[in-house]
Amino acid sequence: MFSEHDITLNPNWFSRDDYREIAELFNTLRKLYAHAPSYSMIISALHAKAKQMPRESPVRKNVLKAVGFLNTVTPLTKTQTEFVVDHLSEFARRRSLYLALMESADAWSNGKYDEIMTRIQGALEDSSRYSEPSLGTDFREARARIRAYTHARRSTKNVPTGIPMLDERIRGGMEPGTLGIIMAPAGRGKTMLLVNFGAIALIAGYNVAHITIGDISELVVSQRYDARLSGFAANAFAKTKAGFAKHVMRATQRAKGRLFIKEYAAHSASVSDIHSYLKTLQDRKQCKIDLVIVDYADLIRPSKQNGRMDIGRYRELGDVIIQLRTLASELHAPLWTASQTGRSAYKSRTIGLQDIWESIEKAQHSDVVIGLAQHDEEKRAGRFRLMLLKNRLGGHEGIQIICNENTDTQTIAQAQNQLRTRQVVP
Q1: CB atoms < 10 A from the CB of 211, how many?
Q2: What number is the average pLDDT over the span 43-69?
Q3: In terms of pLDDT, which residue wins out, 52 or 41?
């Protein structure tokens, strides 16, 4: 949350006991992990602290209220964090000066003006140290570093893809703040794979925002999710058989998370527009978005660069990917998107990073890159291969995972022979 700032909270700044408890806990976590604590650290520590208090204690009730509030708050963007730190610095100066003046009452009565000046000067110096820029990680502080590793592993909620061999190689799923790209020629099933990733997340209880850009409308995307979750063919939703809606509703109720679908015309929305929509969505719906899907990156309108729009398509696409990666980081949620390959990939039996269309920067700034390969025989058989082209989350680049597809129900599943033997095609 405030990793770039070395923040300490003085409990004496606050008049309420519950605020003092929170400040002391914040400082304890900061000292323990050698950096400012994250939301998840504070929430779990406050909850444990509240359990130790008497059940009828007003402080306990207020601390639990703080836990409830923090659970609804989304991680701050870099700009918001800087705003908070600036106001915290001003708050620290005012409260430190106030305390120094209150403590100087006796000195004032006795005419000890030098003592008053010393206290005020000390208060100003102390308050300036409450939000100093972070000096980074001191590698000699091994214990704090190992504790941070352990806490990060325990507190991070990776969002699974539902493809076992892929999830195994990305540490159980995509981590918050990471960006994944699916590369494939047109018509090979990029959108169907993205819908499957979203459906698996919904079933697992994660909230999903699916941004569709271009020719596929909100209605069509909704139908595909209904088909994937219910098992009914997507084209069956145009029929009006009695009781059909009830069957679909009953089948889709197993999705524990919430799904929001937003449509944009091709090249009409920038990453900034998508960011604004997602922040508004979270504020109005009072829910944290756990997975963002953008279908797809090549159709996002590039932002202006220093007022110029002639920087070239190569750099434009690279900038879009950088902005999507930043968006994932600021929302503290994984983001999946898709991109077209070049023409050579249509006839090739494999897909590599060399097949990326227009800009290799799309791969350079992504955490996971997956190629979706499918020749004509595989297409007729309802089969394709996922090729792990880049993986910052665990390596194993170059493997191929065989999957079966059902375009009617929008279902994708790893091939049974690989599930039984954990066989990986080299």
Answers
A1: 23
A2: 82
A3: 52
User: What is the identity of the amino acid at 45?
Assistant: A
Reading the block at residue 245, the tokens are 């809606």
- Give CA separation, 194 vs 82, 145, 422, in Å: 34, 36, 23
Residue 113 has a pLDDT of 82
Please measure the distance between the N-terminal and C-terminal CA atoms of the chain and give it in whole angstroms: 41
User: Identity (one letter) of the amino acid at 58?
Assistant: P
Write the pLDDT tens digit of every residue in 342-365: 777 777 788 888 888 778 888 888
**Tokens 């009830």, residue?**
246
